[in-house]
């Protein structure tokens, strides 16, 4: 399993009139965690796209538990629990400063050829990058 962790502070413009993070922004937080995880692995999305592969979002689930508010520092934990193949499943847990779970979710990505836009399997260089985390 691969795991990454980052902190993000909730900004005013991400909240609604009740001062609570608007539900759509949690998907953005998932994306931020995914971005940080790939950067930490040495393979930011821009690099993947330069190599001719895109990773469109195929599915997103988000389970809301407790609201986040402006100024909260959220701990975003991004996990990859299985080797990417034709699909890439990324799990996210978000916690507030009190350690309470704010939300959980999963993002499913596919792999497509940048030119043909046709589905493809995980590129070898991505598989090799994740391989050490799944040797057991």
Task: Please tell me about this protein's structure.
It contains three helices and seven strands; from the N terminus they run βααββββββα. It starts with a strand and ends in a 6-residue tail after the last helix. The chain has one domain (2-134): Hotdog Thioesterase (Thiol Ester Dehydrase, Chain A), CATH 3.10.129.10. The chain is α+β, with helices and mostly antiparallel strands. A five-stranded antiparallel sheet has the order 1-4-5-6-3, covered by helices on one side. The protein has a two-stranded antiparallel ribbon with strand order 2-7. The protein is globular, with a radius of gyration of 16 Å.
Q: Could you list some keywords that capture this structure?
A:
Thiol Ester Dehydrase, Chain A; globular; 136 residues; 5-stranded antiparallel sheet; alpha+beta; 7 strands; single chain; 3 helices; two-stranded antiparallel sheet
């Amino acid at each position: 399993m691969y795991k990454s962790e980052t902190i993000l502070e909730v900004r005013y413009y991400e909240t609604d009139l009740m001062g609570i993070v608007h539900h759509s922004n949690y998907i953005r937080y998932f994306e931020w965690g995914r971005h940080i995880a790939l950067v930490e692995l040495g393979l930011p999305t821009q690099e993947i796209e330069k190599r001719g592969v895109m990773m469109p979002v195929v599915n997103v689930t988000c389970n809301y538990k407790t609201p986040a508010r402006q100024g909260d520092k959220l701990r975003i934990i991004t996990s990859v629990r299985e080797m990417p193949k034709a699909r890439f499943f990324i799990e996210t847990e978000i916690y507030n400063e009190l350690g309470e779970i704010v939300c959980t979710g999963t993002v499913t990505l596919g792999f497509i050829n940048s030119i043909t836009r046709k589905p493809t399997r995980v590129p070898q260089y991505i598989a090799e990058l994740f391989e050490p985390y799944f040797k057991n």
